[in-house]
Write a structure and sequence with these properties.
This protein is of the alpha+beta class. It is built from 6 helices and 5 strands. The chain has 2 domains: 33 residues, no CATH class; 95 residues, BolA-like (GMP Synthetase, Chain A, domain 3), CATH 3.30.300. A hairpin with a 5-residue loop joins strand 1 and strand 2.
């Protein structure tokens, strides 16, 4: 997923220059293949499951950073998803919270699973978790 701090105006300026952009993966993408599709995308509103996950994690963990990505569309049509309604089944969560201090990764993940117990029962099929303390996250950002 592409994340950017550029404004739409800045992206339009790049389009006007007919630039080639270097993405973090170091692959070059032409402006027509990437920027045009980015600018023409309509933002997708978060669904009810996404909203529940966000609310519960914000309340319980009081994170300094919380990123939730709904990857459900990537798994549509997989055998395990046939007949599943609702569509919000696969999520990636990155949570940075002081509440993870002193806890190993297994306990951090267990805490997130406990917080989202009802969502897992209500149809979340897969949950990928990255759980860091603020110091760990800062160190990762600095490298």
């Amino acid at each position: 997923m592409f994340r950017s701090t550029l404004s739409v105006a800045s992206l339009r300026q790049l389009l006007a220059r007919k630039s080639v952009i270097t993405i973090a993966s170091q692959r070059h993408v032409s402006r027509s293949a990437f920027l045009n599709s980015f600018l023409n995308e309509t933002p997708k509103m978060p669904g009810p499951m996404y909203s529940r996950i966000e609310e519960k994690l914000r309340t319980a963990l009081q994170p300094t950073t919380l990123e939730i990505v709904d990857d459900s569309a990537k798994h549509k049509g997989h055998a395990a998803m046939r007949g599943v309604t609702g569509g919000e089944t696969h999520f990636r969560v990155t949570a940075v919270s002081p509440k993870f201090e002193g806890k190993p990764a297994v306990q951090r993940h267990k805490l997130v699973y406990e917080i989202l117990d009802q969502e897992l029962k209500d149809g979340v099929h897969a949950l990928s978790i990255t759980a860091k303390t603020p110091a760990e996250y800062q160190k990762l950002q600095g490298s």
